[in-house]
């Protein structure tokens, strides 16, 4: 693939590495490639970061035909740049694309795009502890047309954002509201795809949870509204009497790559990890019996986020005295050590660029 590079002649001043937050800053360049029905993907290029010009009738604005991914590039302790499980993210983008009728994109081509863009903007990768360069590939439908059908033209793009810790509280346990009014996904829907519509549907619940003093919601299943699904944009785990439970991948939750990394590490350490449906009432009962030892959420942005409080039915369950559990801490340390190249990459998760 021949990627044309146009350098930004007006580079920005880089932000303070100790105050990055999440998703606030963008690098000097972006990657773009177009799709035209009958031609396929064409014109891969790196261009100065900046606004796009799109027709107001571009289909993405009206019917949300779009997909995205999120992964991170790290400055390793040996000074090299490494990506974590990038092949899995690119595979998942094509699974999402298929669900919303976006044409498949060659995974090697997407990898070349990400690699080239990061090389151009490599000075933007932060090196302060806990920081990384968040990589956001996405696809949008661009046909100027108001009828409802899959588009015939698309843009695949990649933007980069230097990030710090995801949650304001850092690794401190979060307060999560068990959502019983709104649902995120239903069987047969789009819950397993990383597509914008899922997030638009989640905003109201998040805002109402924030108003009640919680930072995120725990979603229950959309059909019976009792089975535990996931937390905001992360997957949920519960340690009960030494065993670890998480919701199975049955189409309504997102197949998190951090979820999979956590499961593989815990199994490697000898934990029994059970992917099985559990109702919120069952969890409450186990909590009452003193058997719920730890709860945590997994996702690329925060890696591991301990759940300190679960609010349900007007009552708060305070888990592990709202302290970080030993397993949550061990997972966080193990995953981040591989990401920053401090530990051996025995699962072949890292790609150097
Ligand atoms: C992205 C995402 C996750 C976490 O996936 P990772 O691959 O671990 O980042 C979980 N749930 C939802 C809804 C998500 O969008």
Automatic annotation (TrEMBL):
Enzyme's top EC category: transferase
Superkingdom of this protein's organism: Bacteria
Biological pathway: Amino-acid biosynthesis; L-leucine biosynthesis; L-leucine from 3-methyl-2-oxobutanoate: step 4/4; Amino-acid biosynthesis; L-isoleucine biosynthesis; L-isoleucine from 2-oxobutanoate: step 4/4; Amino-acid biosynthesis; L-valine biosynthesis; L-valine from pyruvate: step 4/4
Transmembrane feature ranges: none
Listed cofactors: pyridoxal 5'-phosphate
Modified residues (N6-(pyridoxal phosphate)lysine): 194
EC number: 2.6.1.42
One Gene Ontology MF term: L-leucine-2-oxoglutarate transaminase activity
Reactions catalysed according to its record: L-isoleucine + 2-oxoglutarate = (S)-3-methyl-2-oxopentanoate + L-glutamate; L-leucine + 2-oxoglutarate = 4-methyl-2-oxopentanoate + L-glutamate; L-valine + 2-oxoglutarate = 3-methyl-2-oxobutanoate + L-glutamate
PROSITE patterns, alphabetized: AA_TRANSFER_CLASS_4
UniProt keyword annotations, A-Z: Amino-acid biosynthesis, Aminotransferase, Branched-chain amino acid biosynthesis, Pyridoxal phosphate, Transferase
Cited Pfam families: Aminotran_4
InterPro entries membership: Aminotrans_IV, Aminotrans_IV_CS, Aminotransferase-like, B_amino_transII, BCAT-like_C, BCAT-like_N, BCAT_family
Similarity comment: family membership: Belongs to the class-IV pyridoxal-phosphate-dependent aminotransferase family.
Protein name (record): Branched-chain-amino-acid aminotransferase
Taxonomic path: Bacteria, Bacillati, Bacillota, Clostridia, Eubacteriales
């Amino acid at each position: 693939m021949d990627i044309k590079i146009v350098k930004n002649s007006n580079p920005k001043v880089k932000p303070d590495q100790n105050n990055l937050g999440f998703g606030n800053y963008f690098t000097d360049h972006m990657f773009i490639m177009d799709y035209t029905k009958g031609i396929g993907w064409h014109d891969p290029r790196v261009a100065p970061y900046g606004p796009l010009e799109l027709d107001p009738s571009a289909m993405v604005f009206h019917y949300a035909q779009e997909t995205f991914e999120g992964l991170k590039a790290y400055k390793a302790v040996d000074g090299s740049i490494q990506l974590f499980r990038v092949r899995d993210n690119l595979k998942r983008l094509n699974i999402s694309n298929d669900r919303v009728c976006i044409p498949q994109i060659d995974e090697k081509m997407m990898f070349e795009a990400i690699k080239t863009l990061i090389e151009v903007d490599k000075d933007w990768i932060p090196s302060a502890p806990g920081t990384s360069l968040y990589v956001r590939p996405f696809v949008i439908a661009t046909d100027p047309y108001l009828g409802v059908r899959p588009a015939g033209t698309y843009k695949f793009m990649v933007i980069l954002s230097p990030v710090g810790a995801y949650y304001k509280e850092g690794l401190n346990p979060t307060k999560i509201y068990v959502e019983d009014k709104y649902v995120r996904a239903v069987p047969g829907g789009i819950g397993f795809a990383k597509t914008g519509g899922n997030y638009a549907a989640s905003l109201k619940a998040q805002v109402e949870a924030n108003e009640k003093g919680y930072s995120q919601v725990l979603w229950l299943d959309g059909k019976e509204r009792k089975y535990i699904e996931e937390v905001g944009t992360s997957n949920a785990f519960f340690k009960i009497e030494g065993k670890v439970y998480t919701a199975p991948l049955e189409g309504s939750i997102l197949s998190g790559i951090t979820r999979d990394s956590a499961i593989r590490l815990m199994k490697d350490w000898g934990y029994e990890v059970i992917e099985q449906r559990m109702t919120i009432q069952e969890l409450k009962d186990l909590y009452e019996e003193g058997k719920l030892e730890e709860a945590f959420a997994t996702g690329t942005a925060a890696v591991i986020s301990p759940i300190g409080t679960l609010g349900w039915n007007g009552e708060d369950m305070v888990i592990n005295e709202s302290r970080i559990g030993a397993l949550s801490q061990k997972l966080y340390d193990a995953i981040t050590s591989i990401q920053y190249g401090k530990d051996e990459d025995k699962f072949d998760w890292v790609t150097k660029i």
